[in-house]
Design brief:
The protein is α+β, with helices and mostly antiparallel strands. The protein has helices at residues 21-26, 35-43, 58-65, 85-96, 105-111, 115-119, 135-148, 194-201, 274-292, 337-349, and strands at residues 11-18, 46-53, 70-74, 78-79, 82-83, 100-102, 129-132, 152-156, 165-170, 177-182, 190-193, 211-215, 224-230, 233-240, 264-266, 303-309, 320-326. A hairpin with a 7-residue loop joins strand 10 (177-182) and strand 11. It starts with 10 loop residues before the first strand and ends with a helix.
Length: 353
Protein backbone atom coordinates (compact mmCIF):
# COMPACT_ATOMS: atom_id res chain seq x y z
CA UNK A 1 0.00 0.00 0.00
CA UNK A 2 1.37 3.40 -1.00
CA UNK A 3 2.09 5.53 2.06
CA UNK A 4 3.77 8.42 0.25
CA UNK A 5 2.16 11.87 0.32
CA UNK A 6 0.84 12.64 -3.15
CA UNK A 7 2.31 16.14 -3.43
CA UNK A 8 3.63 18.86 -1.13
CA UNK A 9 0.47 20.94 -1.67
CA UNK A 10 -2.15 18.27 -0.94
CA UNK A 11 -2.81 16.95 2.54
CA UNK A 12 -3.34 13.26 3.18
CA UNK A 13 -5.16 11.44 5.94
CA UNK A 14 -5.85 7.83 6.84
CA UNK A 15 -9.17 6.51 8.12
CA UNK A 16 -8.57 3.72 10.65
CA UNK A 17 -11.12 0.96 11.23
CA UNK A 18 -10.83 -2.57 12.58
CA UNK A 19 -10.71 -5.61 10.28
CA UNK A 20 -8.78 -8.70 9.27
CA UNK A 21 -6.01 -9.15 6.72
CA UNK A 22 -8.48 -9.64 3.87
CA UNK A 23 -10.26 -6.40 4.74
CA UNK A 24 -6.93 -4.57 4.84
CA UNK A 25 -6.07 -5.92 1.39
CA UNK A 26 -9.46 -5.32 -0.24
CA UNK A 27 -10.91 -2.17 1.36
CA UNK A 28 -10.90 0.93 -0.83
CA UNK A 29 -12.37 4.39 -0.45
CA UNK A 30 -15.13 3.35 -2.84
CA UNK A 31 -16.24 0.15 -1.07
CA UNK A 32 -15.63 1.32 2.50
CA UNK A 33 -18.59 1.96 4.79
CA UNK A 34 -17.08 5.44 5.15
CA UNK A 35 -17.47 6.16 1.44
CA UNK A 36 -19.45 9.37 2.06
CA UNK A 37 -16.67 10.64 4.31
CA UNK A 38 -14.03 9.80 1.69
CA UNK A 39 -16.08 11.67 -0.93
CA UNK A 40 -16.52 14.75 1.27
CA UNK A 41 -12.80 14.85 2.06
CA UNK A 42 -11.92 14.56 -1.62
CA UNK A 43 -14.31 17.40 -2.37
CA UNK A 44 -12.38 19.49 0.13
CA UNK A 45 -9.05 18.76 -1.54
CA UNK A 46 -7.93 16.18 1.01
CA UNK A 47 -6.61 12.79 -0.09
CA UNK A 48 -7.79 10.01 2.21
CA UNK A 49 -6.89 6.33 2.35
CA UNK A 50 -8.35 3.42 4.35
CA UNK A 51 -6.16 1.96 7.08
CA UNK A 52 -7.66 -1.30 8.33
CA UNK A 53 -6.17 -2.26 11.70
CA UNK A 54 -5.62 -5.42 13.68
CA UNK A 55 -3.04 -6.23 16.31
CA UNK A 56 -1.60 -8.97 14.06
CA UNK A 57 -0.38 -6.42 11.51
CA UNK A 58 0.01 -3.35 13.71
CA UNK A 59 3.51 -2.57 12.41
CA UNK A 60 2.23 -2.15 8.85
CA UNK A 61 -0.52 0.17 10.10
CA UNK A 62 2.02 2.19 12.07
CA UNK A 63 4.16 2.66 8.97
CA UNK A 64 1.11 3.75 6.99
CA UNK A 65 -0.01 6.28 9.58
CA UNK A 66 3.45 7.81 9.84
CA UNK A 67 3.24 8.60 6.13
CA UNK A 68 0.15 10.84 6.31
CA UNK A 69 -0.65 14.26 7.75
CA UNK A 70 -3.67 13.23 9.80
CA UNK A 71 -5.51 10.19 11.13
CA UNK A 72 -9.24 9.67 11.74
CA UNK A 73 -10.15 6.66 13.88
CA UNK A 74 -13.35 4.62 13.98
CA UNK A 75 -12.67 1.68 16.33
CA UNK A 76 -15.01 0.55 19.12
CA UNK A 77 -13.68 0.29 22.69
CA UNK A 78 -14.54 -3.45 22.71
CA UNK A 79 -14.91 -5.61 19.60
CA UNK A 80 -15.22 -9.40 19.69
CA UNK A 81 -13.32 -9.50 22.97
CA UNK A 82 -10.53 -7.16 21.81
CA UNK A 83 -9.96 -3.79 23.46
CA UNK A 84 -8.29 -0.67 22.07
CA UNK A 85 -5.30 -0.92 24.45
CA UNK A 86 -2.70 -1.78 21.79
CA UNK A 87 -4.22 0.57 19.21
CA UNK A 88 -4.29 3.46 21.64
CA UNK A 89 -0.60 2.96 22.38
CA UNK A 90 0.14 2.96 18.65
CA UNK A 91 -1.91 6.12 18.08
CA UNK A 92 -0.10 7.94 20.88
CA UNK A 93 3.22 7.04 19.28
CA UNK A 94 2.05 8.22 15.86
CA UNK A 95 0.72 11.51 17.24
CA UNK A 96 3.98 12.13 19.11
CA UNK A 97 5.90 11.72 15.84
CA UNK A 98 3.93 14.29 13.85
CA UNK A 99 0.60 13.27 12.32
CA UNK A 100 -2.52 14.74 13.88
CA UNK A 101 -4.87 12.08 15.35
CA UNK A 102 -8.60 12.36 16.01
CA UNK A 103 -9.87 11.33 18.36
CA UNK A 104 -6.61 11.20 20.30
CA UNK A 105 -6.71 8.38 22.89
CA UNK A 106 -6.06 10.84 25.72
CA UNK A 107 -9.08 12.89 24.66
CA UNK A 108 -11.21 9.73 24.54
CA UNK A 109 -10.14 8.93 28.10
CA UNK A 110 -11.49 12.32 29.18
CA UNK A 111 -14.79 12.55 27.31
CA UNK A 112 -15.50 9.23 25.57
CA UNK A 113 -15.86 7.18 28.76
CA UNK A 114 -18.71 6.88 31.24
CA UNK A 115 -16.68 8.79 33.86
CA UNK A 116 -17.63 11.96 31.98
CA UNK A 117 -21.14 11.49 33.44
CA UNK A 118 -19.72 11.81 36.94
CA UNK A 119 -17.24 14.59 36.24
CA UNK A 120 -19.89 16.76 34.53
CA UNK A 121 -22.85 15.79 36.72
CA UNK A 122 -23.25 19.41 37.86
CA UNK A 123 -23.85 20.68 34.31
CA UNK A 124 -27.33 21.15 32.89
CA UNK A 125 -27.24 17.67 31.36
CA UNK A 126 -26.42 15.97 34.68
CA UNK A 127 -28.45 13.84 37.07
CA UNK A 128 -27.96 11.87 40.30
CA UNK A 129 -24.63 10.17 39.52
CA UNK A 130 -21.96 8.35 41.54
CA UNK A 131 -18.62 6.71 40.78
CA UNK A 132 -17.08 3.59 42.32
CA UNK A 133 -13.31 3.41 41.99
CA UNK A 134 -12.81 -0.10 43.34
CA UNK A 135 -14.70 -3.31 44.00
CA UNK A 136 -14.54 -2.58 47.72
CA UNK A 137 -16.01 0.90 47.24
CA UNK A 138 -18.77 -0.62 45.08
CA UNK A 139 -19.67 -3.29 47.63
CA UNK A 140 -19.78 -0.84 50.51
CA UNK A 141 -21.71 2.03 48.93
CA UNK A 142 -23.93 0.75 46.14
CA UNK A 143 -26.40 -1.30 48.25
CA UNK A 144 -27.44 1.67 50.39
CA UNK A 145 -27.94 3.89 47.34
CA UNK A 146 -30.05 1.23 45.68
CA UNK A 147 -32.25 0.86 48.76
CA UNK A 148 -32.57 4.62 49.21
CA UNK A 149 -34.35 5.31 45.94
CA UNK A 150 -35.66 3.89 42.71
CA UNK A 151 -33.89 1.85 40.03
CA UNK A 152 -30.27 2.58 39.19
CA UNK A 153 -28.20 2.07 36.03
CA UNK A 154 -24.65 0.75 36.37
CA UNK A 155 -22.17 1.40 33.54
CA UNK A 156 -18.66 0.13 33.02
CA UNK A 157 -16.31 2.97 32.16
CA UNK A 158 -15.37 1.78 28.65
CA UNK A 159 -17.71 -0.23 26.48
CA UNK A 160 -20.16 -0.12 23.59
CA UNK A 161 -23.27 -1.89 22.35
CA UNK A 162 -24.76 -2.08 25.83
CA UNK A 163 -21.89 -4.19 27.18
CA UNK A 164 -21.53 -3.69 30.92
CA UNK A 165 -24.67 -1.55 31.33
CA UNK A 166 -27.26 -2.83 33.83
CA UNK A 167 -30.60 -1.60 35.13
CA UNK A 168 -30.85 -2.65 38.78
CA UNK A 169 -33.86 -2.41 41.09
CA UNK A 170 -34.38 -3.75 44.58
CA UNK A 171 -37.02 -6.44 44.99
CA UNK A 172 -39.71 -5.61 47.55
CA UNK A 173 -39.28 -7.33 50.89
CA UNK A 174 -35.71 -8.48 50.28
CA UNK A 175 -32.47 -6.64 50.91
CA UNK A 176 -30.48 -9.41 49.26
CA UNK A 177 -32.29 -9.86 45.93
CA UNK A 178 -32.39 -7.54 42.91
CA UNK A 179 -33.95 -7.52 39.46
CA UNK A 180 -31.39 -6.79 36.75
CA UNK A 181 -31.57 -6.23 33.00
CA UNK A 182 -28.47 -6.08 30.81
CA UNK A 183 -28.55 -3.47 28.03
CA UNK A 184 -27.20 -5.85 25.39
CA UNK A 185 -29.68 -6.94 22.73
CA UNK A 186 -31.99 -9.88 23.57
CA UNK A 187 -31.34 -9.69 27.31
CA UNK A 188 -34.16 -10.61 29.66
CA UNK A 189 -34.73 -9.57 33.30
CA UNK A 190 -33.22 -11.76 36.02
CA UNK A 191 -33.94 -11.94 39.73
CA UNK A 192 -30.58 -12.66 41.37
CA UNK A 193 -28.76 -12.03 44.65
CA UNK A 194 -27.16 -8.60 44.82
CA UNK A 195 -23.85 -10.32 45.58
CA UNK A 196 -24.08 -12.16 42.25
CA UNK A 197 -24.52 -8.89 40.37
CA UNK A 198 -21.56 -7.35 42.16
CA UNK A 199 -19.38 -10.32 41.28
CA UNK A 200 -20.39 -9.94 37.61
CA UNK A 201 -19.40 -6.28 37.69
CA UNK A 202 -16.02 -6.66 39.40
CA UNK A 203 -14.10 -7.27 36.11
CA UNK A 204 -15.14 -3.75 35.02
CA UNK A 205 -12.57 -2.35 37.42
CA UNK A 206 -9.82 -3.82 35.22
CA UNK A 207 -9.31 -2.06 31.91
CA UNK A 208 -12.11 0.46 32.50
CA UNK A 209 -11.05 1.46 35.98
CA UNK A 210 -14.41 2.41 37.53
CA UNK A 211 -18.17 1.91 37.51
CA UNK A 212 -20.63 4.77 37.08
CA UNK A 213 -24.03 4.68 38.81
CA UNK A 214 -26.89 6.85 37.52
CA UNK A 215 -30.53 7.20 38.43
CA UNK A 216 -32.77 5.38 35.94
CA UNK A 217 -34.71 7.80 33.72
CA UNK A 218 -38.43 6.90 33.65
CA UNK A 219 -38.92 8.53 30.24
CA UNK A 220 -36.50 6.09 28.60
CA UNK A 221 -39.31 4.44 26.55
CA UNK A 222 -39.91 7.82 24.84
CA UNK A 223 -36.61 7.43 23.03
CA UNK A 224 -33.05 8.70 22.83
CA UNK A 225 -31.68 11.73 21.00
CA UNK A 226 -28.16 11.47 19.58
CA UNK A 227 -26.57 14.87 19.06
CA UNK A 228 -23.77 14.58 16.51
CA UNK A 229 -20.92 17.06 16.92
CA UNK A 230 -17.98 18.00 14.70
CA UNK A 231 -15.57 19.81 16.96
CA UNK A 232 -17.72 22.24 18.93
CA UNK A 233 -20.55 22.54 16.38
CA UNK A 234 -23.67 20.42 15.96
CA UNK A 235 -23.59 18.35 12.76
CA UNK A 236 -27.02 16.76 13.08
CA UNK A 237 -29.31 14.65 15.25
CA UNK A 238 -30.55 11.08 15.39
CA UNK A 239 -33.78 10.13 17.15
CA UNK A 240 -34.60 6.54 18.05
CA UNK A 241 -36.99 4.50 20.15
CA UNK A 242 -34.58 2.23 22.02
CA UNK A 243 -35.24 -1.09 23.73
CA UNK A 244 -32.12 -1.38 25.86
CA UNK A 245 -33.09 -1.54 29.55
CA UNK A 246 -36.77 -1.87 28.58
CA UNK A 247 -38.18 -5.30 29.56
CA UNK A 248 -39.06 -7.33 26.46
CA UNK A 249 -42.70 -8.21 25.72
CA UNK A 250 -44.07 -11.57 26.93
CA UNK A 251 -43.48 -13.04 23.47
CA UNK A 252 -39.72 -12.73 24.02
CA UNK A 253 -36.68 -10.57 23.17
CA UNK A 254 -36.44 -11.69 19.54
CA UNK A 255 -39.93 -10.60 18.47
CA UNK A 256 -40.46 -7.51 16.28
CA UNK A 257 -41.97 -5.66 19.25
CA UNK A 258 -38.69 -6.02 21.13
CA UNK A 259 -36.52 -4.53 18.38
CA UNK A 260 -35.36 -0.89 18.53
CA UNK A 261 -36.96 1.53 16.13
CA UNK A 262 -35.03 3.00 13.20
CA UNK A 263 -32.78 5.96 13.95
CA UNK A 264 -34.38 8.92 12.20
CA UNK A 265 -31.70 11.36 11.11
CA UNK A 266 -32.12 15.13 11.14
CA UNK A 267 -29.90 18.01 10.06
CA UNK A 268 -28.39 20.48 12.54
CA UNK A 269 -31.22 22.99 12.00
CA UNK A 270 -34.08 20.57 12.71
CA UNK A 271 -36.80 22.57 14.54
CA UNK A 272 -37.52 19.96 17.28
CA UNK A 273 -33.92 20.18 18.50
CA UNK A 274 -33.19 23.90 18.31
CA UNK A 275 -33.13 24.29 22.08
CA UNK A 276 -30.83 21.28 22.47
CA UNK A 277 -28.50 22.67 19.80
CA UNK A 278 -28.25 26.02 21.62
CA UNK A 279 -27.51 24.21 24.88
CA UNK A 280 -24.81 22.04 23.29
CA UNK A 281 -23.01 24.79 21.36
CA UNK A 282 -23.38 27.71 23.76
CA UNK A 283 -23.34 26.08 27.20
CA UNK A 284 -22.69 22.40 27.70
CA UNK A 285 -19.80 21.77 25.28
CA UNK A 286 -17.77 24.82 26.44
CA UNK A 287 -18.49 23.88 30.06
CA UNK A 288 -17.44 20.26 29.46
CA UNK A 289 -14.21 21.43 27.82
CA UNK A 290 -13.42 23.60 30.84
CA UNK A 291 -14.13 20.80 33.33
CA UNK A 292 -12.13 18.18 31.43
CA UNK A 293 -9.30 20.43 30.24
CA UNK A 294 -9.90 19.90 26.52
CA UNK A 295 -8.91 22.65 24.08
CA UNK A 296 -11.14 23.29 21.06
CA UNK A 297 -8.60 21.93 18.50
CA UNK A 298 -8.47 18.64 20.43
CA UNK A 299 -12.21 17.95 20.26
CA UNK A 300 -12.92 14.93 18.04
CA UNK A 301 -13.72 15.60 14.41
CA UNK A 302 -16.91 13.58 14.95
CA UNK A 303 -18.46 12.61 18.28
CA UNK A 304 -21.92 12.35 19.72
CA UNK A 305 -23.75 12.92 22.97
CA UNK A 306 -26.66 10.60 23.71
CA UNK A 307 -29.52 12.14 25.64
CA UNK A 308 -32.59 10.74 27.36
CA UNK A 309 -35.57 12.88 28.24
CA UNK A 310 -35.42 14.12 31.82
CA UNK A 311 -38.27 15.51 33.92
CA UNK A 312 -40.21 18.32 32.27
CA UNK A 313 -39.47 21.75 33.72
CA UNK A 314 -41.95 24.10 35.38
CA UNK A 315 -43.14 25.33 31.99
CA UNK A 316 -43.66 21.80 30.66
CA UNK A 317 -40.61 21.89 28.41
CA UNK A 318 -38.34 18.89 27.97
CA UNK A 319 -35.07 18.60 29.82
CA UNK A 320 -32.26 16.28 28.74
CA UNK A 321 -30.04 13.86 30.65
CA UNK A 322 -26.70 12.76 29.21
CA UNK A 323 -26.37 8.97 29.17
CA UNK A 324 -23.05 8.68 27.29
CA UNK A 325 -20.63 10.31 24.86
CA UNK A 326 -19.30 8.33 21.91
CA UNK A 327 -15.89 9.50 20.73
CA UNK A 328 -14.20 6.24 19.67
CA UNK A 329 -16.46 5.14 16.81
CA UNK A 330 -19.34 7.47 15.98
CA UNK A 331 -21.16 5.93 13.00
CA UNK A 332 -23.76 5.93 11.30
CA UNK A 333 -24.08 9.67 10.86
CA UNK A 334 -26.57 12.15 9.37
CA UNK A 335 -26.31 13.11 5.70
CA UNK A 336 -24.94 16.53 6.69
CA UNK A 337 -22.13 15.10 8.85
CA UNK A 338 -19.55 14.12 6.16
CA UNK A 339 -19.36 17.71 4.94
CA UNK A 340 -18.95 18.91 8.53
CA UNK A 341 -16.18 16.34 9.06
CA UNK A 342 -14.39 17.52 5.92
CA UNK A 343 -14.59 21.17 7.01
CA UNK A 344 -13.23 20.38 10.46
CA UNK A 345 -10.44 18.20 9.05
CA UNK A 346 -9.44 20.99 6.66
CA UNK A 347 -9.29 23.49 9.53
CA UNK A 348 -7.21 21.15 11.68
CA UNK A 349 -4.76 20.30 8.91
CA UNK A 350 -4.06 23.98 8.31
CA UNK A 351 -2.62 24.11 11.82
CA UNK A 352 -0.26 21.13 11.59
CA UNK A 353 3.06 20.70 9.83
Amino acid sequence: MDTERLSPSRRTIAIVSRGDAAARRDTTAQNSRFVRVFEALAGGGIDAQPAVYDESFADAVRDQLLGVDGVLVWVDPIHQGKTRAALDSLLREVAARGPWVSAHPDVILKMGVKDVLYRTRHLGWGTDTHRYDSAADFRVNFPSRLRAGGPRVLKQNRGNGGQGVWKVEALPGSAAMVRVLHAQHASIPEDIPLDTLMARCEPYFGWGGCIIDQAFQPRLPEGMIRCYMSGSKVAGFGQQLIKALVPPPPEGPDTPEAQPGPRIMHGPNAPPFRALRRKMEDEWTPQMMAVLGIAAPALPVIWDADFLYGPRDADGADTYVLCEINASSCFAIPDEAPAAIARTVGERLQKVR
